């Protein structure tokens, strides 16, 4: 007698056998990168099958790996996006190189640095402003803006102005200068940000340069000739520029506490060091010169004893300068001729005088 | 420059600014575009290969119509120039010569300078036309399968794998339609050779929710042999792979979803005179001229009056 359970079991079994299985057996689990829909299978390939029926084998491999990938994908959370069932893919795990470098952070302008320092907050201003003349809301800046001075069709000539001056032209010029100044400041901000050289004050145009600025500009103009202004004549009332040249920059009195601390500690460290800080090459050279001087003085005493007319034909370069120049020359030699100098002088002594000198000079 | 507006010469129109913004370095980058270039001499095989791979890579691909006499391994400047002009960072250069028959150079660039280049020789090629089955729509994101131990063990093959993923992965997607997973590209590495096969996916019923996968071969089948390589140094590669720190995600303004799940947004308009709106012209509803109207009225009253009188 067949029980209900037996019947049900047989039905499910028959159903299951109708459909092919989605299970896949692999020795090494393939690595899946769902974000990229990628499967990397490291299992060794069956060379026999490859030689046999390559395409069928590769197809079966591909099918197995894709089945594994799909099994993983179907486990992800789904959502409905406009009549289609979509799966939300996770982030990609494969590291791939970028196309372009990472964008650099925006450079802070001079004003922004100052505002940050002072704690000034930015206040957002509305775009539209009430224009009293037109009795309408107009943009604060840009095309058809409110309170546009340059668009006045009537301008009252002020009492102290030159009657032949064109007031409209004056306003247009003022506007152009403002625009140019803005552009200059923008470029200066960029230059400061990219650490390229910024032309200092005195060279850049300002609306109403002060007396000092004019003087500085004049001085700079004078200096920027091929001979640094040595041969340009002075103007009748020109004063010699006083505060010119590079200013010495000192660290601010109260600034970076960390830096100050480090500096002070460094000083103490140097003072407290048991070994004196010594320039080895300098010390060696000094020792050498002393040795040479002693040697030369010894030689002189010896020779003075032996040969009477020691000072025969005056040796032009050699003996006269032997004591002083030679040692001086060798003293100056420093690192380069260290070994040579010692040998040359100590060994051959006077005989080497001229030659030695030559060597010293021709270094 | 960090942004477009911090250039020395600012763009004068909004369109120019947007165009420059598209090409500028960003946190989240655009999908990589590939250039398909033909060399001085090409064979029929190579032109066919380039054509078919271009179809696989469309729409993020540019094909060059003319032949370009250049040698990528000797001089990279022309490739870098093309990359700059077309704003693309992948290329596939095909050529044919006696010494290097059916040659493909697959490469990618970083900051418009060549990063990696791998020279592959097409040993055997079966075109898409040789497979008489139904093909896949353009732009489908393919599933990639890599087989063979070489792809993990050999340094050159590992870079080649990364290059192939970069080339063939398609658009970067967060959501994928389950029915749209139709294409599978398989790369197998067997002793110095790479086999490329392309399949279409058929989903069959299985006992469970996850379907059973069946594949039919469709697209081009290539047998490639790895010839020369010019790979980037490790530190340059590391630099190129650097990930930026993710900033705060931008709030999307003005978009809300209502109770039924529909996406709503607000459009702000200025005041309009509805009588002067530009709509579709329906002649029958046109307002007649006043003189015509009066005549029509008169005619009507005249016709109605006698009837009134009669009654």
TrEMBL record, chain B:
Source species, please? Branchiostoma lanceolatum (Common lancelet)
Pinpoint the Brix domain residues: 32-235
- Per the annotation, which location comes first and is thus the protein's main one? nucleus
Which protein family is it in?
Belongs to the RPF2 family.
Q: Which UniProt keywords apply?
A: Nucleus
GO MF annotations for this entry? rRNA binding
Q: What is this protein called?
A: Ribosome production factor 2 homolog
Q: Where is the composition biased (Basic and acidic residues)?
A: 294-303
- What PROSITE patterns does the record point to? BRIX
Q: Where does it live in the cell?
A: Nucleus, Nucleolus
Q: Which InterPro entries match?
A: Brix, Rpf2
* Pfam families recorded: Brix (PF04427)
Location of the region described as Disordered in the Swiss-Prot/TrEMBL record: 269-311
Q: Which domain of life is it from?
A: Eukaryota
This protein's GO CC annotations: nucleolus
GO process terms (BP): maturation of LSU-rRNA from tricistronic rRNA transcript (SSU-rRNA, 5.8S rRNA, LSU-rRNA); ribosomal large subunit assembly
Can the keyword Nucleus be found in this entry's annotation?
yes
């Amino acid at each position: 007698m067949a029980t209900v359970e037996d019947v049900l079991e047989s039905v499910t079994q028959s159903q299951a056998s109708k459909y092919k299985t989605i299970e896949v057996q692999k020795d090494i689990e393939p690595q899946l990168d769902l974000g990229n829909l990628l499967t990397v299978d490291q299992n060794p390939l069956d060379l026999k099958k490859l030689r046999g029926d390559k395409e069928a084998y590769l197809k079966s491999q591909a099918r197995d790996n894709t089945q594994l990938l799909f099994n993983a994908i179907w486990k992800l959370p789904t959502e409905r996006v406009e009549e289609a069932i979509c799966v939300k893919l996770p982030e990609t795990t494969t590291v791939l190189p970028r196309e372009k470098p990472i964008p650099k952070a925006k450079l802070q302008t001079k004003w922004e640095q100052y505002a940050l320092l002072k704690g000034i907050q930015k206040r957002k201003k509305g775009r539209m402003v009430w224009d009293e003349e037109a009795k309408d809301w107009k943009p604060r800046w840009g095309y058809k803006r409110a309170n546009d001075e340059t668009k006045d069709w009537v301008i009252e000539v002020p009492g102290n102005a030159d009657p032949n001056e064109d007031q409209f032209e004056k306003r247009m010029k003022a506007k152009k200068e403002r625009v140019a100044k803005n552009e200059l400041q923008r470029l200066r901000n960029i230059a400061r940000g990219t650490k390229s050289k910024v032309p200092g004050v005195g060279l850049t145009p300002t609306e109403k340069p002060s007396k000092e600025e004019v003087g500085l500009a004049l001085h700079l103009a004078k200096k920027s000739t091929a001979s640094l202004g040595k041969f340009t004549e002075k103007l009748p009332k020109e004063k010699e520029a006083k505060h010119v040249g590079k200013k010495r920059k000192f660290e601010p009195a109260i600034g970076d506490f960390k830096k100050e601390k480090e500096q002070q500690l460094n000083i103490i460290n140097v003072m407290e060091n048991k070994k004196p800080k010594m320039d080895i090459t300098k010390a060696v050279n000094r020792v050498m010169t002393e040795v040479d001087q002693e040697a030369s003085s010894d030689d002189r005493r010896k020779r003075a004893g032996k040969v009477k007319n020691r000072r025969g034909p005056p040796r032009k370069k050699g003996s006269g300068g032997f004591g002083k120049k030679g040692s001086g020359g060798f003293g100056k030699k420093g690192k380069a001729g260290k070994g040579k100098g010692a040998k040359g002088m100590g060994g051959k002594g006077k005989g080497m005088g001229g030659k030695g000198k030559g060597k010293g000079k021709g270094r | 420059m960090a942004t477009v507006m911090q250039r020395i010469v600012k763009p004068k129109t909004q369109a120019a600014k947007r165009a420059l913004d598209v090409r500028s370095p960003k946190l989240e980058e655009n999908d990589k575009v590939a250039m398909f270039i033909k060399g001085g001499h090409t064979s029929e095989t190579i032109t066919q290969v380039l054509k078919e791979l271009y179809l696989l890579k469309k729409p993020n691909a540019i094909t060059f119509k003319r032949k370009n006499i250049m040698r990528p391994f000797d001089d990279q400047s022309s490739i870098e120039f093309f990359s700059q002009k077309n704003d693309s960072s992948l290329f596939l250069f095909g050529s044919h010569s006696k010494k290097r028959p059916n040659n493909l150079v697959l490469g990618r660039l970083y900051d418009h300078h060549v990063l990696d280049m791998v020279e592959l020789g097409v040993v055997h090629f079966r075109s898409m036309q040789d497979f008489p089955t139904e093909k896949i729509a353009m732009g489908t994101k393919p599933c990639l399968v890599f087989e063979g131990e070489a792809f993990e063990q050999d340094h050159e093959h590992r870079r080649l794998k990364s290059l192939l993923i970069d080339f063939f992965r398609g658009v970067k997607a967060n959501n994928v339609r389950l029915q749209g997973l139709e294409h599978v590209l398989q790369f197998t590495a067997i002793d110095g050779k790479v086999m490329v096969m392309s399949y279409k996916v058929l989903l069959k019923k299985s006992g469970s929710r996850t379907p059973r996968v069946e594949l039919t071969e469709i697209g081009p089948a290539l047998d490639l042999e790895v010839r020369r390589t010019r790979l980037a140094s490790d530190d340059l590669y590391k630099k190129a792979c650097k990930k930026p720190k993710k900033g705060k995600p931008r709030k999307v303004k003005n978009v809300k979803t209502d109770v039924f799940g529909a996406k709503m947004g607000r459009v702000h308009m200025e005041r309009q005179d509805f009588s002067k709106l530009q709509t579709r012209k329906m002649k029958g509803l046109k307002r007649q001229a006043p003189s015509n109207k009066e005549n029509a009225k008169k005619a009507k009253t005249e016709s109605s009056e006698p009837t009134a009188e009669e009654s």
